[in-house]
Write a structure and sequence with these properties.
Layout (H helix, E strand, L loop, with lengths): L2 H6 L2 H13 L2 H8 L3 H15 L4 E4 L2 E4 L1 H21 L10 E8 L8 H11 L2 E8 L5 H5 L5 E7 L10 E9 L1 E6 L11 H6 L1 E5 L8 H8 L5 E6 L2 H8 L5 E5 H10 L2 E5 L7 E8 L6 H15 L1
Length: 306
Amino acid sequence: MDLIALSRLGGRHLVTLHLLLDNQSVTRTAERLCTTPSTVSKTLNQLRDLLGDQLLYRQGNQLLLTPMAERLAPTLHRLLGELNGLTNQQQFEPGQWQGRLRLGLRESSMTWPVGPLLDKLMAAVPGLIPEIWNKDEQGLAALTQGKLDLVILPHDQSQPIRSLSGLVWEKLCDDELVCLLRNDHPALTKPWDLDAYLSWRHIAIRDHELASPFFEQTLAQQQVQRRLGAIVPDFGSGAALLTESDLIMTALGGWAAQMAAHYPLVTRPVPFAYGTICHSLVWHGPAGEDPAHRGLRELLLTLARS
């Protein structure tokens, strides 16, 4: 251990570096620290001298991370979390706490169930600023890298989960699957059963972090499969396509009910067994021990179950 080198690397350096790696912006880092961009730039130059690496470099109008900075980010996030636990032993006080909660989720999840939950959470914690990221931009891997605090993810409970070390999963709330289609769809004039379901083309939702949905496996076991008509990144874009086509989408029930209330869409039951659906909170275990992180997470779970 090089104690001399460590003595030159102060807490101010570590916090500034953490925010720079997270925001990739001198201006936003300065705003978070309530200081000036020139002060942040000066600290960055000191860090470059101390660590012997550029850390961030400019390409066009963007700051990009060097390979060393990419490696440092998750370690630094964990270190600051542990240091915060040493210096901040008091209980989480929702009415007094101020800060950001960085969430990764599907865009459609803001409609249901996350939007209503965040409204209640912000009422309970007035100083909270949710920072929302699309899960395709920042997903499960971002938790281990310290770029997100929580991911909220709908999935089949029997669906194999991508294995990432240190992630913790806890069920937020249950849901179900329904079929969503436009309210004058030709299928509505005939009995709704498996044959009717399979006779139409379907919209599939793309997700790189989860395995094939369990209901797809159920259909495969019956030696049948859906005919795909489109593959989209999210339920929201799928709903827009439904209103203009004869496609059908197998969607989350809570979200689909919201869509059917505001758009010319209707729901029908899924005509086969498909397993159990839920929305889960996912976090990185070591980061989850921070008192504020744990308090916000427990509050979210309580609000979802009340």
